[in-house]
């Protein structure tokens, strides 16, 4: 009886031990076809409740999320951005793609793409984007005004695009880019309002009289409108570029976390007592995506109400922004609801005209499972990661589709596959995507084999398990002895 019990307990412990230590292990890529469908075999991939991601969108499919690759067939709010391709002048298109979405933050305050709703306590987001602007040079320059009066027989008090603005002594001058009611936004490249001296001295403050002239009146001879500047801070300079945002319910429940990457960058949980998590204190001060395509990843987990145990992690091209041990307090007793909506980039208060943001693709899932391709055989050395979009996923088999993107011209034998499990744990050494063969139009089957390094790793990990088993054996003996002692004592009493 006792040896049997011992054996059963040992097996249970062994199994749980294996699960504690298990990291995803790829043993074979059994199929890689010309349409880039791939089958990955191995173990410890962990169960994924939904086989496909919550949402997959790529500009090559148009503006709607792909129902083939993801589960959502539509966005959850108004879509921001225009579909462009290489026939549109001055566009940038990501490598391996034909189209992109772009939005001019200088003319629209809306977010690019759309909010996406989710119900889970975890989230993983992968996206590819490009900023065709400089957060410094392309900032919005604004004065608000009141008391506008028409002068010299002009028939309106409405400031319009192209008009000139000066102070009474004409020492500060600017040209109006656009003018929503009661405000004028100015060009950063015409006039002197963007000069450092102006920025420092802030000479157009609340109460300063200002004058507006017609577009052709380049001598500033006949003002058409006069007004009083009413901008509390003086000339207002701003490029309020939020690069990521989680909400509970936009516009209703103002609990959100947002992130920015400018020189004042931060992660800020609004309405929190914890204060901003400033970019200046991050492990890696991730740079804005200025005139470069970046792949960015976010991994989120809600917190226990009031506890600082929530997770948010951010990587740009596999560069981790802050320490794994960083935790956040997103929800509190007074605001206990977890986030339900995720937004991509958005700008408030304008920017210079032609400040285009581009998006190539977006992948969102409710768990942290994912499959990535990297350009190094060691995960942490990869400086670029691209996605494999899964459509089947169990402990031992993943089927999906490669998005080569950045790696479009990279030989497959320089690329390595990584599986991240439910906990975001990855196989440290990647599995080579192709040993010698490129996919062919005939739908060639490429068979990968366990490489020597993989064998060494697996031997090491078996050795570890063996050592751990001995430790457990000793503990088991100890526990059983304890049990026997307890039994003996009980017998003695009863
Ligand atoms: C490129 O964009 C133009 C203008 O929107 C459109 O007419 C054309 O069909 C697009 N071409 C491709 C290949 O998508
Ligand atoms: C979230 O839950 C609501 C209510 O059960 C449901 O209508 C909605 O489809 C769910 N959304 C997602 C993204 O699963
Ligand atoms: C003011 O005058 C301009 C040209 O002098 C004319 O185009 C415009 O319609 C007029 N606006 C109003 C509100 O009368
Ligand atoms: C605009 O000009 C008129 C006429 O010169 C003057 O009475 C008024 O005070 C000026 N308003 C502002 C805001 O400077
Ligand atoms: C991450 O945080 C842990 C715990 O605070 C600390 O021991 C470790 O040095 C940090 N690592 C880095 C790279 O900052
Ligand atoms: C990975 O790709 C980046 C960008 O293309 C390149 O700079 C880097 O050298 C590559 N690294 C390896 C190990 O191939
Ligand atoms: C990974 O990076 C480390 C540290 O830079 C380096 O020592 C190692 O050789 C790299 N390994 C591979 C496979 O690129
Ligand atoms: C996983 O899926 C594959 C292919 O559908 C199947 O052959 C295998 O038995 C499944 N494994 C488990 C553990 O469910």
Automatic annotation (TrEMBL):
Signal peptide feature range: 1-22
Keywords carried by this UniProt record: Membrane, Signal, Transmembrane, Transmembrane helix
Transmembrane segments: 470-493
Protein name per the record: Predicted protein
